[in-house]
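The instructor's notes for this session suggest beginning with a concrete chain rather than abstract definitions. Hand out the sequence below and ask the class to guess, before any prediction is shown, which regions might be ordered.
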Amino acid sequence: MQMVVTGVADIWTQPSTESERDSQVVYGESVDMLEEIGRFSKVRSIDGVVGYVKTAILGEWSDRHFKLSHQVRNEMMTFPFGAYVSKGDIEDFKIPNRYLHSIDEKFIPIKLTRKFMGIPYLWGGTSDFGFDCSGFTQRLFRFSGTEIPRNSNQQRDASVTVDGFESALPGDLVFFKGHVAFHLGKGRIIHANGHFSRITETDLFDSSPYSKELLSIVEKIGRFRLNE
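After discussion, reveal the predicted structure:
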């Protein structure tokens, strides 16, 4: 087992940066090394995504003690939200204590969502450098202490069905064809979307063309039980 030693690492579908970005892993997350191919390594991430990362951004696994609740930039490294750091990292990179939380500390994902308003949409993105729709939901659940699958179809199938918007609670997930969003309540959602190329809020019942289009492709409202 190895871990990512750069801020964010792309997982490519082929051993080339000209291929498609399938997902990402952030600093301190572990991967299983499957094969080394030139400058790339074939790896499996903790959520089961198999693809290729640059070998140079991998290092030997060491214990992680904290997770970051905020992006931290300094002259040596930019750590994204949700990065996992050690006590040595805190000293070496002078990470402020106010952003450090025990790796086991629990949070409620929906209460974290609005801090990411305006973050760019990025296909395959799982960090606050850029999110795709399911990367946004998965990252916030993972930070909060609950692991859910990587892509929206997997999340849809793994969640417990909620009987319509009348029964939906803040924090449930609304699944559309090929898309997922957090439900804020009363039909309002927050989501990483290509329509606006960033994380935005949408009122599904405001009668706008975009909302009508989304409502026409709703597949399910789902709920995950949070680890406590």
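Then share the key points. The radius of gyration is 18 Å. The chain has a mean pLDDT of 97.
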